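User: I've been trying to design a sequence by hand for this structure and keep getting stuck. Would you show me what you'd pick, starting by listing the structure so we're on the same page?

Assistant: Good idea, let's start from the same input. This is the structure you sent:
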């Protein structure tokens, strides 16, 4: 006889009541009979809002993405919106990406909103996530939803919630919404759509978004220089194909080559192991085309077009994929140079980044006399900084995971405007007899050579989540005194919001919201951060090292990173 935990069975039985459709009930019965482990993972908890919203595997159960979990979320959000805006008509914008079931789930979410007398602006076809953030503000909506799981495997989907400022929810508001959802039983979801309250949107919003991207992401580069720049672009089967080629065309880039095999949106992502521009393998086909066309720059975006991967030629003429920190540093430096040339820097501007990103960004920003502000990982926190600093102009901001934002017309990472900006950089540097790669080396020469490395450890299912919890507990209870032979001089524990100087024991408060992150700083300038994911059973280790620029600095830093990894004993 197959044993099922009584607490799990209690949750399962709710889904076997008449409110749930026959197909759902049949799938659950199959799990009970043949796959108790999958049943447990499907029901042992509710999907949680993390740094990237709510994301999970599609299927039946409380811990899966399906019509009932999304319906319940939407019903709870509808109730919350009515409490927050009691005296005005409520409007919500909805977008979706290329993933399986995204279009159908987006329509279902729209149905629940309209059943609650909320007007919905629904994109008629797939669109980039940053365009949804833009549309929320442009259409003066109170909220927005995008159905996406970013670059997760094909079996995943997700649900990101945006507020009226175009940014994702942050505490305490996310908890308030979750509390509203938690009050509900599934049979309280209103699926009775009011089709009159759905307005389909597409080309008008596209053009308004492109206009704003052109304004913020281009800097008077002469047309002749643009004609001399060869660009290779891949959408990796995602949403960027709907916007990026047109934005580049309107910016004046005439020599753009699209990887046709990856241009058709497809939730199976058939030509890549992972549709993630952070992975060098994802850009293999784009690099092949770039070599054939002797391109100057290669751009790849993830399925929902918020992350951007950039490959450029090094001094030997070989293409290399820049990491997110390197791209962020170059874009930041270029933006600051342009603002300075235009006489727009007056001390009332700021650049933002995250606690796990390269420290080099701060050095660059402060050198230009601009405020540097730091946040937790995730662009909802950078958007929060924009909202909290209305007297400062936001120039741009980014994080190590290939995301960047230029200007405040979007409040999430934006690969559309970023694509325009990296093309501007490549074009202007080529015209100067330099290159994107050489520009990065110039920055290293001025500020020091920095190198970062990311380790991701995935632990699947309920037991995996427990293992990660135990790992973080162990790091806290048995802290490192030294790492790779270098003394730890400071520890920052964001869970309790305290920074501790190792030598003196002196503590200071960290003025950033609490989060399960631990960061070590060592005598030789290294920085090691540990952070479990908020949406999946994964723990990440972010390593940053630096040295004065010299001919073999990259080799020195690579060896230093290897030594640090050995010291951490991650198994």
């Amino acid at each position: 006889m197959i044993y099922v935990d009584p607490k799990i069975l209690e949750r399962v039985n709710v889904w076997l009541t008449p409110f749930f459709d026959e197909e759902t009930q049949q799938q659950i019965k199959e799990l009970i009979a043949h796959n108790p482990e999958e049943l447990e993972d499907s029901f042992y908890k509710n999907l949680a809002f993390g740094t990237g919203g709510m994301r999970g595997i599609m299927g039946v159960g409380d811990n899966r993405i399906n019509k009932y979990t999304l319906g319940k979320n939407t019903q709870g959000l509808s109730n919350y919106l009515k409490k927050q805006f009691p005296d005005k008509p409520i409007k919500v914008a909805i977008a979706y990406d290329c993933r399986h079931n995204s279009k159908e789930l987006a329509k279902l979410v729209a149905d629940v909103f309209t059943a609650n007398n909320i007007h919905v602006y629904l994109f008629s076809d797939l669109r980039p996530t940053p365009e949804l953030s833009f549309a929320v503000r442009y259409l003066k909506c109170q909220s927005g939803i995008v159905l996406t799981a970013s670059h997760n495997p094909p079996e995943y989907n997700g649900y990101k919630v945006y507020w009226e400022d175009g940014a994702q929810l942050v505490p305490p508001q996310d908890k308030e919404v979750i509390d509203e959802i938690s009050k509900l039983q599934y049979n309280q979801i209103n699926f009775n759509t009011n089709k009159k309250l759905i307005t389909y949107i597409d080309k008008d919003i596209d053009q308004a978004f492109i206009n704003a991207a052109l304004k913020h992401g281009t800097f008077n580069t002469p047309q002749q220089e643009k004609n001399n720049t060869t660009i290779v672009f891949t959408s990796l089967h995602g949403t960027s194909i709907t916007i990026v080629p047109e934005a580049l065309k309107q910016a004046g880039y005439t020599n753009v080559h699209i990887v046709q095999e990856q241009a058709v949106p497809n939730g199976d992502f058939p030509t890549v192991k992972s549709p993630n521009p952070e992975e060098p393998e994802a850009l293999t086909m784009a690099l092949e085309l770039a070599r054939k066309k002797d391109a100057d720059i290669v751009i790849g975006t993830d399925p929902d077009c918020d992350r951007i991967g950039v490959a450029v030629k090094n001094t030997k003429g070989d293409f290399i994929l820049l990491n997110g920190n390197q791209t962020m540093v170059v874009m930041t430096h270029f933006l600051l140079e342009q603002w300075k040339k235009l006489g727009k820097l007056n001390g009332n501007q700021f650049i933002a980044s995250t606690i796990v990103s390269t420290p080099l960004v701060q050095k660059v920003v402060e050198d230009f006399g601009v405020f540097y502000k730091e946040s937790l990982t995730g662009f909802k926190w950078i958007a929060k900084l924009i909202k909290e600093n209305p007297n400062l102009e936001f120039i741009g901001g980014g994080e190590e995971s290939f995301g960047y934002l230029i200007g405040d017309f979007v409040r999430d990472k934006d690969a559309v405007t970023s694509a325009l900006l990296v093309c501007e950089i490549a074009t202007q540097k080529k015209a100067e007899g330099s290159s994107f790669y050489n520009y990065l080396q110039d920055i290293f020469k001025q500020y020091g050579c920095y190198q970062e490395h990311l380790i991701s450890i995935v632990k699947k299912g309920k037991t995996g989540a427990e293992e990660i919890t135990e790992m973080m507990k162990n790091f806290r209870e048995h802290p490192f005194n030294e790492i790779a032979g270098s003394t730890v001089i400071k520890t920052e524990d964001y869970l309790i919001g305290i920074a501790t100087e190792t030598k003196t024991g002196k503590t200071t408060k960290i003025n950033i919201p609490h989060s399960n992150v631990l960061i070590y700083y060592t005598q030789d300038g290294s920085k090691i951060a540990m952070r479990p994911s908020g949406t999946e059973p994964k723990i990440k280790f972010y390593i940053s090292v630096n040295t004065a620029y010299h001919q073999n600095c990259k080799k020195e830093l690579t060896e230093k990173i290897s030594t640090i990894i050995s010291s951490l004993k991650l198994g």
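That's my pick for every position. To get oriented when you compare it with your attempt: The first helix runs from residue 6 to 14. The chain is about 40% helix and 20% strand.
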